[in-house]
Write a structure and sequence with these properties.
This protein has 8 helices and 12 strands. It has helices at residues 67-75, 97-107, 123-133, 140-149, 165-177, 195-211, 223-227, 249-259, and strands spanning 7-9, 12-14, 26-35, 41-51, 56-61, 82-87, 90-91, 108-112, 183-187, 216-219, 231-236, 239-245.
């Protein structure tokens, strides 16, 4: 794959190799997303957001607010109808589908509620999969660090079907971090877990932002999960309607209640 092109964000050319540490890990600039059909649906209507490097942010909103669309567009799983999506200093908005796939594989990590592990591959191979698909060799020291940090040492040879839900999500987190991505997007990462496993997974994500300087953006409906993050962005009808720093569970629950009225 050729090197991703430089990006012009607000008139400033920023090469990927020279990305400033103060530049956001992810930037959305006036992002619109409309789904065509008999009645077009405007899922995002001019969203502009920055996600700082090494930050943990929750995105919340009622059903149909646009939060899942925001995650998909920001992660490169979908393309905006209009606007810019910049990841690690690179504008992904005008990539070809193939280049976007390759860029996403190298620069974006994903954690899904359903884990999305490959059932016939063992834990170690699942973790290494993004690198294998990209024709790259795993950094064995980094792999060992992830396995140790995420508490899955001793499970390397097991298949996903032999893991508990909490263990499977830990493997999914390790896979998401394996490429040292610019950002990790998580879609309801604790939604399928019991309260104890969910709390452990949440603590691991918080730890990743602190110790690994990893940027994490997660979608959640759980006010307790959101309160553990540094910032909560609230969406309604495809627009950002609130942006709260250092949230409490009470603040989040009250805001969600107000949005539902």
């Amino acid at each position: 794959m050729p090197n991703p092109p430089d990006v012009d964000v607000e008139g400033v050319d920023t090469p990927r190799s020279g990305t400033s540490r103060t530049e956001p890990a992810v930037r959305l600039v006036d992002v619109h997303k409309t789904y065509d059909g008999a009645t077009p649906v405007a899922a995002l209507r001019g969203v502009s957001l920055d996600f700082a490097r090494g930050s943990l942010t929750a995105v919340m909103g009622q059903s149909g607010s646009g939060k899942s669309t925001l995650l998909n567009v920001a992660a490169g799983l979908d393309v905006p109808t209009r606007g810019q999506v910049v990841i690690g200093g690179t504008d992904t908005s005008k990539f070809s589908p193939d280049d976007l796939t390759r860029f996403r594989r190298d620069q974006v990590g994903f954690i899904f509620q359903s884990y999305n592990l490959i059932g016939h591959l063992d834990v170690l191979t699942n973790i290494e999969l993004p690198l294998v698909l990209g024709g790259r060799t795993a950094d064995r020291a980094w792999l060992a660090e992830l396995v140790r940090t995420l508490g899955i040492a001793g499970l390397e040879d097991r298949l996903p079907g032999e893991l508990s839900g909490g263990q499977a999500q830990r493997v999914a987190i390790a896979r998401a971090l394996m490429t040292r991505p610019s950002v990790v997007f998580a879609d309801e990462p604790t939604g399928a877990l019991d309260s104890r496993s969910g709390q452990q997974v949440l603590e691991l994500l918080c730890d990743a932002t602190r110790r690994l300087n990893q940027t994490v953006v997660l979608v959640t409906h759980d006010s307790g999960v959101a309160a553990a993050t540094e910032r909560v962005v609230f969406l309604s009808d495809g627009l950002v309607v609130d942006d709260v720093t250092a949230p409490t569970a009470e603040q989040v629950a009250a805001r969600m209640l107000a949005l539902g009225r």
